[in-house]
Write a structure and sequence with these properties.
Length: 190
């Protein structure tokens, strides 16, 4: 379904440190490592059970590390790339902006930030995204912050405003079919 994460892989450096925020079970992190074994991967997730699973994979080695953490309150490393795939909508809008700002401040020269998240303005397609996320959080597959199980979807325009304020150039990859998920490839303006 993800085409082996190739749309992400082609924008990522093939060496250096990649920080995967919201890594879940580590599937994307492991795939990026398999596609370029010289990459070092530092991955974080809010769900301790998913991190435990990721840490017990046969592919695990010294170049890939998984940590249980709330990244909004955790120091993140200086990195050549940050990946935030399907994670921002679990945080209130101001926390989303702070995390993007934190990643921008820790991004190495010529680094890249890749964000995939829903565009709340795509009303019809966004309904499918909301329903799938509501099922996954209410069934316990994904964990929200606090007990409310609240999700915080924002529009593409709001993300573009945040990126502009941080002086980031944004390439938009919109291959939406049944969901409202858009990929943003971000680099610091030269």
């Amino acid at each position: 379904m993800e085409d082996n994460y190739l749309p992400f892989h082609k924008h990522l450096p093939e060496n250096g440190l990649l920080t995967d925020i919201g890594c879940g079970y580590g599937l994307m992190s492991y795939m990026f490592h398999l596609l370029a074994p010289q990459r070092r991967i530092m991955a974080y997730d809010y769900d301790r059970d998913k991190i435990d699973t990721a840490n017990h994979c046969a592919l695990k080695n010294d170049n890939i590390q998984f940590h249980h953490a709330d990244v909004s309150r955790t120091e993140i490393p200086q990195s050549d790339a940050f990946i935030l795939a399907d994670v921002l909508h679990y945080m209130p809008e101001d926390e989303q902006e702070k995390l993007i700002n934190k990643c921008t401040g820790k991004l190495n020269e010529k680094g890249v930030i890749i964000i995939r998240d829903a565009n709340a303005a795509m009303k019809k397609k966004h309904l499918g995204t909301r329903i799938s996320e509501l099922f996954s959080t209410h069934l316990g597959f994904n964990k929200t912050i606090g007990e409310s199980k609240k999700l915080y979807f924002i529009s593409k325009e709001k993300y573009l405003t945040i990126f502009s304020q941080l002086d980031l150039h944004a390439e938009i990859i919109d291959e939406t079919k049944i969901t409202s998920n858009i990929v943003y490839v971000l680099r610091k303006k030269q």
